[in-house]
Amino acid sequence: MSQSSIINSRIAALQKTMAKDRLQAWLILSADSHLSEYLPEYWKLREWFSGFTGSAGTLVVLTDKAYLWADSRYWVQAEAELKGSNVKLMKMGDGQTPSYSEFLQTTLPEKSNVAVLGDTIAIENFVELYENLDDHGITLTTECDPFDKVMKDRAPLPTEALYLHDPQFVSETIASKIAKIRQTMEDVEADVHIVSTLDDIAWITNLRGKDVTYNPVFLAYLMITKSSVTLFIDETKLNQEVKKYLTDNKVTVFPYDAFYDELENIPTNKVIMLDEKRNTYAALEAIDEECDILYMPNPSTLLKAQKSDADLQNIQEAMREDGVAMAHFYTEFEAKLAKGEKLTELDVADMLQKERSARANFIDLSFDTIAGYNPNGALPHYRATEDAHSEIKGDGLLLIDSGAQYQNGTTDITRVIPIGSPTDAQKRDFTLVLKSLIVMSETIFPADIPMPLLDAIARRPLWENHLDYGHGTGHGVGYFMNVHEGPQVLSFRAPVSDQTKVKKGMITSIEPGLYREGQWGIRIENLVASMPVKTQKEQDFGQYMYFETLTLFPIDTRLMDLTLLEAKEISWINQYHERVYRELSPKITDDKVLTWLKARTEAIKP
């Protein structure tokens, strides 16, 4: 049976349950009960029913049709993966396609019932959707859950063991972190704080796990009161070392599936502090209606984003190791190409992982390596598979977006290299993207400015040429944590709020791009840390900050159109490459790799 036939049969099975449950629509989100971006297999419902493998998207199943909402990063991928099935792509953000909420409001008749799993939707989103549908006489319900029956081969919940984040790389104890959270609770007079997001829990506890591919987190909930800390987790994941660690730090362990029962047991005279963006509606449903709910962001989210000076030093060392690994990879890769050996996008991913895994403190990759040659590079979230990948031959551009998890830091880097002879048009596109990277990297900005407001600065070199890219310019990055981390985000499309203000120690990517569908894609990415300027020129206008570049690896000068670069941009490139060589070369003992690095970091002249 073809994949499209399998998808059609799965949707038909779900539609059969809808008739029994008197539902007119199922809303299937890309989420789990912790509202994670990357999901355990157990929670990949949208992918199972649609066949679309992208990390973001929403499926709406009606009684006779199905629709998938995906943003511009995934349009080409979604069209290919949905081909032949009865699922129609809805191009979210194209200016013409309604949101799935608007679609449901205008498509369904009054007295219709729409189902969503209450443990996959944030409180804030549920309330908004409920009110919008209710205005049109449509009911949103969380009472149905047919998925265990419909999904005969549903994956079990993961059971990977936990481990301690190596103490030599931990700059703050669990006791100190809990104390800061309790201080916030005291300030707002809260009795109980609920934490559901996995990276917050891993950060607070200084524990790591393997429940989600590439993200060193584990399935758990955390409940903090004035006198207790309770971790809800599958106890089979805890070895003796972790159990002792939790006991020593006065953390009580309850079963993972006891979480909702314990929410029900919270006395009605308590004030509960929880984040309506980071806790599910199912959690709210479990709490007695007589309890006072105080909605506010998790204190740990902002605390976690502000890396300490010790953290930043550790991360810089991880960047050196990562740069050395990539230098070994590129040396070998280009040598194989020169010999005429057959290489594919899959080989790129395998070779990179081999080199990274040999470096100190390596744990895993931080995401699936994106190696996209020519038209595949124009797909921002492309991933080569055994069934669909390209050989790297002829002339063109190879985009490689990759990263790793080290005990002392998380890396994420994108570079583009020429294969054969690049065209003038490709060099022009590359140089305009490079100019965007440079202008953002050199920007001085006021402390506490909301980061989304800075995005337009990065886009200026492209906007001046009537060019743009559909994704944000940057995202937060964790410290041996999720490669995508909030609350900051470098995107003009993101909301401006207190949570998105720039703070010292935040690590953010700068990754402008340019994508020509069916031809090539370009993205250049460095990670940076938000830091106060070293010397204040004025004292009367507040504190100013800058982005300190952390990533250490050459940007290919063979793709630069020097006629498009200003003197100060050439100076930035040369200074950056001088630093890359200075910091990586002492760690390289292979003469071939050192020769490659020296050639790629040679100064350019206008």
Automatic annotation (TrEMBL):
Top-level division of the source organism's lineage: Bacteria
Which Gene3D superfamilies does the record associate with it?
Creatinase/methionine aminopeptidase superfamily, Creatinase/prolidase N-terminal domain
Alphabetical UniProt keywords: Aminopeptidase, Hydrolase, Metal-binding, Protease
Question: What are the Peptidase M24 domain coordinates in residue numbering?
Answer: 314-528
Q: Which Pfam family, giving just one, matches this sequence?
A: Peptidase_M24_C
Q: Is Cell cycle among the key words of this record?
A: no
Molecular function (GO) terms listed?
Answer: aminopeptidase activity
Domain Peptidase M24 C-terminal, by residue range, is 543-604
Q: Which InterPro entries match?
A: Creatin/AminoP/Spt16_N, Creatinase/aminopeptidase-like, Creatinase_N, Pept_M24, Pept_M24B, Peptidase_M24_C, X-Pro_aminopeptidase_P
User: Which residues are in the Creatinase N-terminal domain?
Assistant: 10-134
Family, per entry: Belongs to the peptidase M24B family.
Protein's UniProt name:
Aminopeptidase P family protein
